């Protein structure tokens, strides 16, 4: 009697865990994609119903060293399964009769036999005989039916209901799991294919006017209202454009549909006997886990500086950042649902206390909590106010999320079912980005930044011997204790006339003595077609123009002179605007740095409207902009609607309007361009060079 109680308790422990057993051999791929789960079903079902049988070699609690009867343990170890005649022959007979319907070839059964008879551990004894040898020993067909959980001490038949109960679970779960992985792959791959596919559409030979109408109706306007760069709703959110909203809609839709698509319940079922509700919760919870994992590679890819989609599409980094934030929210909600559903399942089955002590449980909790904490601590006001703090926290917690998710899977399944592959993809994306950042830095080495004060608002930074366009991240390791701190700035110029630079240097020495004194102009230091011949002596040097804010830029201004700098360059090359006959550029303040290379390179009609707080900034750019038709506004606002109406009305050629400036200015330009694009017969394209994301 005592022995039977102990066996029953052991069964209670073993049976529910049969479905997703933890230990196992390493799988390669995902379930259904390289990893075959519970196939052939007939063999697994036969093995499962015999797993809880007490064999002659099963060790009861009292015979196990150090175990008392009260501890309620009895185990059948792998060597027992591998050698027990009754077990081997009953299993072989079950397989031979049940697997006929599934037409499983003998070689497959033999292979399965070799790997699974003793158990599913990575290291375990081989069965003492092959499947066919065990079957040959069954000289007369058994007549006695073994009921699941009963002792097994002679070759027996297996009960039909027991078999069906196990078969259903072993058949259904892998199908549902493969669907989860398939949906996960669809999310991840479409998150790569969509940006590529959509940006290829621009090569379709549609009339420019059609594109203009499409952009001004469907792609460029904010989804609601007329603000896109300016925060809305208590400064908490950025309103997506209609084009971005379509993508967000797509990701929302597939994530909602995939949350429950193709899920079914089946009874009898050994995992949730008579409990379809429990089964469905299990499946939905696991689906949530997989979908959350599948969103994370995109979350990391979209946030990366070295996101390869930036190289092959015409999408902006701010669009990817918007999607990064949105998908992160989806992944967080899915992880939270996954955890809540498992909490409900475990507390319902009474196993919560035991589960909570398992490493997989608390690592999973770390992953979910990490995601849940990241979202509220990444809201726009915090990003704007405490950018460096936000960034350090964001990176640290993200590492915890990935580590937590990875260990959650490894402690639970020991690499058996490949769920950790999603985390490997995340790690690869993250490592790729970091390695490329390092290489971009290493390529340039340690340089010196020459800091020139232009006026109360602006400073110019020049770095000799570095090439690049678009924007670069500057590190000033000696400026503050946060040696890793780096900030993006647009490259205003890529070469310097040698003679002028010497003058810049001498004036910099003066600045150190007289920091308030205005210094050389950009027109003196930047290459200017009016003042320097193409054959003049130039050197490679990057020039940046910085508006002083309250963080690193303020320290930089206070420091002045020459300080060591690391330059991570080569980001965001300039778009090719040669197909547009007319370029209308609207710049606000320091936004001119992103506009300057475009207006200087454009060969058609170019008109620049530039508003700045001070004349000093305008004067600084006098040289490089000498040959650009421009109107400047100092201390007064340009009326953007008037400017654009005047430029666009009646324009018969293709026009591109580029804006780079404060959020309000960018939004107004977007609004007016969209309105004119909708109402006028003008082929206009909007391009926003943004200084934030
Ligand atoms: C692609 C790009 C190009 C830019 N080019 C220029 C330029 O040519 N000239 C210029 O003056 N400014 C440029 N900026 C803006 C510039 O990066 C920030 O003004 C600068 O980082 C502020 O530094 P701070 O520590 O003094 O700012 P703080 O006073 O701490 O913050 C001011 C604002 O800058 C934002 N910010 C701070 N650090 C970063 C960062 N590492 N990345 C993004 N935003 C940040 C904050 O969220 C806040 O909104 C550019 C930004 C981007 C994204």
Please outline the helices and strands.
Blueprint: H1 2-14, E1 30-31, E2 34-35, H2 41-51, H3 78-83, H4 85-98, H5 106-116, H6 131-136, E3 145-146, E4 157-158, H7 160-200, H8 208-219, H9 242-260, H10 276-303, H11 308-312, H12 317-349, H13 352-356, H14 359-374, H15 380-385, H16 387-413, H17 420-444, E5 446-453, E6 458-464, E7 471-475, E8 486-497, H18 498-513, H19 522-525, E9 538-547, H20 552-559, E10 561-571, E11 582-588, H21 592-601, E12 605-612, H22 615-620, E13 629-634, H23 640-648, E14 655-660, H24 663-679, E15 684-688
Parallel strand pairs: 1-2, 3-4, 11-12, 11-14, 12-13, 14-15
Antiparallel strand pairs: 5-6, 5-10, 6-9, 7-8, 7-10, 8-9
The protein binds flavin-adenine dinucleotide.
Structural notes for this entry:
- This protein is α/β, with parallel strands linked by helices and 693 residues long.
- The chain folds into four domains: 2-158, no CATH class; 175-434, no CATH class; 445-571, Beta Barrel (Elongation Factor Tu (Ef-tu), domain 3), CATH 2.40.30; 582-688, Nucleotide-binding domain of ferredoxin-NADP reductase (FNR) module (Rossmann fold), CATH 3.40.50.
- The protein contains 24 helices and 15 strands.
- It has helices at residues 2-14, 41-51, 78-83, 85-98, 106-116, 131-136, 160-200, 208-219, 242-260, 276-303, 308-312, 317-349, 352-356, 359-374, 380-385, 387-413, 420-444, 498-513, 522-525, 552-559, 592-601, 615-620, 640-648, 663-679; strands at 30-31, 34-35, 145-146, 157-158, 446-453, 458-464, 471-475, 486-497, 538-547, 561-571, 582-588, 605-612, 629-634, 655-660, 684-688.
- The strands form four sheets. Strands 5-6-9-8-7-10 form a six-stranded antiparallel barrel, surrounded by four helices. Strands 13-12-11-14-15 form a five-stranded parallel beta sheet, sandwiched between helices.
- α2 (41-51) crosses α7.
- Residues 1-22, 64-71, 500-519 and 526-534 have low confidence and may be disordered.
- The structure holds flavin-adenine dinucleotide.
- Residues 383-384, 387, 471, 487-490, 544-547, 549-554, 590, 593, 691-693 line the site of flavin-adenine dinucleotide (FAD).
- Flavin-adenine dinucleotide binds next to α15, β8, β9 and α20.
């Amino acid at each position: 009697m005592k022995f039977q109680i102990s066996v029953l308790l052991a069964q209670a422990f073993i049976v529910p865990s049969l479905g997703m057993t933890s230990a196992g051999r390493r799988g390669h791929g995902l379930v259904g994609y390289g990893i075959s789960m519970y196939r052939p079903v007939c063999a697994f079902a036969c093995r499962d119903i015999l797993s809880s049988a007490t064999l002659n070699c099963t060790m009861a609690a009292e015979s196990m060293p150090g175990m008392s009867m009260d501890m309620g343990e009895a185990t059948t170890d792998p060597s027992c399964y591998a050698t027990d005649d009754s077990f081997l022959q009953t299993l072989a007979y079950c397989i031979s009769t049940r697997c006929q319907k599934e037409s499983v070839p003998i070689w497959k059964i033999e292979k399965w036999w070799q790997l699974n008879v003793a158990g599913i551990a990575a290291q375990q004894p081989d069965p003492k005989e092959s499947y066919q040898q065990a079957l040959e020993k069954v000289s007369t067909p058994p007549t006695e039916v073994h009921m699941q959980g009963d002792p097994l001490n002679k070759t027996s038949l297996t009960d039909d209901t027991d078999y069906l109960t196990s078969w259903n679970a072993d058949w259904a779960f892998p199908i549902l799991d493969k669907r989860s992985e398939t949906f996960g792959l669809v999310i991840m791959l479409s998150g790569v294919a969509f940006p590529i596919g959509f940006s290829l559409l621009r090569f379709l030979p549609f009339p420019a006017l059609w594109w203009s109408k499409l952009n001004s109706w469907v792609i460029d306007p904010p989804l609601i209202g007329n603000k896109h760069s300016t925060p809305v709703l208590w400064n908490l959110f950025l309103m997506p454009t209609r084009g971005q909203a379509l993508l967000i809609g797509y990701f929302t839709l597939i994530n909602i549909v995939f949350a429950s698509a193709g899920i079914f319940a089946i009874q009898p079922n050994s995992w949730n006997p008579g409990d379809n509700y429990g089964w469905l919760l299990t499946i939905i919870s696991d689906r949530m886990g997989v979908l959350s994992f599948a969103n994370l590679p995109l979350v990391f890819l979209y946030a990366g500086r070295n996101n390869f989609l930036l190289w092959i599409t015409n999408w902006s980094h701010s669009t990817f950042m918007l999607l990064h934030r949105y998908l992160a929210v989806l992944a967080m909600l899915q992880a939270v649902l996954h955890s809540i559903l498992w909490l409900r399942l475990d507390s319902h089955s009474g196993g919560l206390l035991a589960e909570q002590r398992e490493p997989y449980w608390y690592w999973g909790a770390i992953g979910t909590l990490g995601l849940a904490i990241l979202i509220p601590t990444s809201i726009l006001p915090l990003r704007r106010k405490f950018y460096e703090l936000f960034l350090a926290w964001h990176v640290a917690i993200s590492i915890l999320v990935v580590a937590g998710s990875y260990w959650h899977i490894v402690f639970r399944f020991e690499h058996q079912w490949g769920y950790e592959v999603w985390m490997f993809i995340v790690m690869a994306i993250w490592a790729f980005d970091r390695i490329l950042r390092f290489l971009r830095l290493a390529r340039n080495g340690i340089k010196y930044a020459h800091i020139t004060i232009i006026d109360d608002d602006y400073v110019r930074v020049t770095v000799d011997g570095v090439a690049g366009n678009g924007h670069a991240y500057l590190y000033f390791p000696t400026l503050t204790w946060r040696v890793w701190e780096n900030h993006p700035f647009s490259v205003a110029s890529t070469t310097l006339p040698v003679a002028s630079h010497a003058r810049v240097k001498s004036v910099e020495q003066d600045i150190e003595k007289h920091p308030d004194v205005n210094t050389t102009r950009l027109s003196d230091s930047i290459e200017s077609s009016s003042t320097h011949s193409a054959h003049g002596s130039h050197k490679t040097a990057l020039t940046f123009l910085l508006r002083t804010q309250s963080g690193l830029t303020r320290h930089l201004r206070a420091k002045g002179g020459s300080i060591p700098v690391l330059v991570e360059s080569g980001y965001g090359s300039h778009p090719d605007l040669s197909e547009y006959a007319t370029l209308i550029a609207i710049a606000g303040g320091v936004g001119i740095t992103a506009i300057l290379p475009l207006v200087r390179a454009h060969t058609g009609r170019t008109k620049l409207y530039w508003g700045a707080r001070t004349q000093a900034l305008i004067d600084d750019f006098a040289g490089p902009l000498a040959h650009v038709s421009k109107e400047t506004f100092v201390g007064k606002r340009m009326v953007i609607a008037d400017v654009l109406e005047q430029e666009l009305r009646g324009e018969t050629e293709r026009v591109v309007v580029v804006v780079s400036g404060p959020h309000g200015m960018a939004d107004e330009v977007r609004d007016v361009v969209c309105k004119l694009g909708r109402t006028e017969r003008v082929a206009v394209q909007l391009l926003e060079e943004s200084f934030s994301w």
